[in-house]
Amino acid sequence: TQCPVHVGREPANAIDQLDRAIDHDWVIFDDGVSRAWQGEKRVVALSDSDFERPLRYLPFGRWRTTPASLKSASYVAITSLSDAPAANAHRERLQEWGFSGQVGWFSYRLEGIQPYPDGLSSDPLAAGPVRAGNPLVFCGIARPDRFCHSVRSLGLSDTAFRVFPDHHSYTRDDLAELERIRLRLGCTWFLTTLKDAVKLDPRWIGSTPLFFLRIALHQVAGTDILVAL
Predict the structure, then answer these.
(1) Euclidean distance between CA atoms 45 and 13, whole angstroms
(2) DSSP of 158-195
(3) Pairing outcome for strands 102-115 and 210-222
(4) Whose CA is closest to 174, among 151, 145, 140?
(5) Pair 189, 208: CB distance under 8 Å
(6) Which terminus of the chain is more solvent-facing, meaning fewer CB atoms within 10 Å of its CB: N or C?
(7) Closest CA to 199 of 172, 170, 175, 174
(8) Is cis: bond before 54, omega within 30 of 0?
(9) Spatial contact of 163 and 189, defined as CB atoms under 8 Å apart
(10) Rg (Cα) of the chain, in Å, rounded?
(11) Cβ-based neighbours of 209, under 8 Å, separated by 6 or more
(12) d(Cα 212, Cα 24) in Å, to the nearest integer?
């Protein structure tokens, strides 16, 4: 989107700050389904596995609340569409849950690795080259196994892997720890996710190159999300 990204613990405070600091038309934020905001348009993201029977709730699945929460959604975005019958099955299941609104199907596409922080301001479609040598891979996300799979699909090794807690707030000491691990394992560069990269102060980055994996989301069927909203 090339728009500013802000990380904070309380969305209301962050939005108040943005209202005072930036001339903007709208704000996109991830707040789960814990509250409602005046004038909000709620998007619920699902995957194929979320439609399986029986439903699997946290910590054994991805559901945080019952499908009844879909009734307040403006749009449902579904990843992994195999064919038209699958789309029909998704629609039927959504109707069972009380949702009959706009739906779109999306697929992920790896667009390569880019240097941090320079890659944050570069063309998101201009993927950087895959570096030589083994990286020290690290992340603080809910599904680190999916990040490992993405790293391997690029032909890179994920044997040197440090996992932090989801939503981890990185410090200078964390980068120092990663540097010690890198030297011990003989890795030549760092690789992380974009979610983690935006939490790293560039002043903490030493001489070891740090890259992030850029992943794009492409719509393959259904109603365009921006038109629907």
Answers:
(1) 24
(2) -SSEEE--TT----HHHHHHHHHHHHHHT--EEEEEHH
(3) antiparallel
(4) 140
(5) yes
(6) N
(7) 170
(8) yes
(9) no
(10) 20
(11) 115, 131, 188, 189, 190
(12) 27
pLDDT (mean) for 149-156: 90
Please report where in the chains the tokens 């992943």 appear, as a residue.
215
Longest Cα pair distance anywhere in the chain, in angstroms?
Answer: 55
DSSP codes, 100-111 = -SEEEEEEEEEE
Angstrom distance (rounded) from CA 182 to CA 192: 13
Q: Cα–Cα distances in Å, from 66 out to 56, 58, 103, 197?
A: 10, 11, 19, 32
Instruction: Please report, for residues 37, 117, 156, 192, the alpha-carbon distance to residue 211 in angstroms, rounded to integers and kept in the order given.
Output: 36, 8, 13, 6
- Contact at 8 Å (CB) between 186 and 208? no
Q: Check whether 59 has a pLDDT greater than 90.
A: no
Determine contact, residues 30/166, Cβ cutoff 8 Å.
Answer: no
